[in-house]
Amino acid sequence: MNLTIQEDMTNIFLNSGFQEDVVYTPSGGTPRTIKAFVFREGSMDTNSGSRTGGLSNSTLNRYYKVEMLVSNESTIGIDNLTIHEDKITFPRRVGDSTNVTWLIKGIVEDDSESLRIGLS
């Protein structure tokens, strides 16, 4: 079987059992459910200059409260977002019954098959 990287992202990675359903609301658009990997602790900025430095005394601040990996595709993911306007809704903690709406604050990584976005 010969899959493309986008098909791998869609059919394997985002269907691995570790993904979550979240609600993406584009600015002025209709909310829709997409699959995502949610990193609820976000990345750290450290004195050593490492964006993803571990928790230590050198930690200065968190870039984003939450980071999320989604497919860079219009049907099941996000292919065109508006920073500081688009929103994503999901529980603050896994298992919570109350959802929180987060504002998309930035793009951490962007490639042909996935987006890693920062939320606050």
Structural overview:
This protein is mainly beta and 120 residues long. It has one domain. It has one helix and eight strands; from the N terminus they run H-E-E-E-E-E-E-E-E. Strand 7 and strand 8 form a beta hairpin.
Quick gist of this model?
The chain has 120 residues and is mainly beta.
Q: Any descriptors?
A:
mainly beta; two-stranded antiparallel sheet; single chain; 8 strands; 120 residues
Global outline: globular
Q: How many angstroms does the end-to-end distance come to?
A: 40 Å
Total helical segments? 1
Q: Which band does the percent of strand residues land in?
A: 35-45%
Determine the mean pLDDT: 78
Class based on secondary structure composition and strand pairing: mainly beta
**Structure summary, number of beta strands:** 8
Fold blueprint:
Layout: H1 5-11, E1 20-25, E2 32-39, E3 44-46, E4 59-62, E5 66-71, E6 87-91, E7 99-110, E8 114-119
Antiparallel strand pairs: 1-2, 1-6, 2-5, 3-4, 5-8, 6-7, 7-8
